[in-house]
Amino acid sequence: MKLSSDTINVLKNFSDINENILFKPGKEIHTISGMKNILAKATIGEEIPKEFGIYNLAEFLNVIGTYSSPIIKFSDSQSLVVDDEKDSSPVKYNFSEKSVLNTPEKMIQMPSVDSTFELKNESLQKVMKRVNTLGLPDLAFKSEDGEIKLVASDKKDPNSNTASIVIGNSNIDFIAYLKTENLKFVPDDYTVEISSKKIAHFINKNRPIEYWVALEPDSEF
Question: pLDDT, tens digit, for every residue of 134-149?
Answer without folding.
Answer: 999 999 999 999 999 9
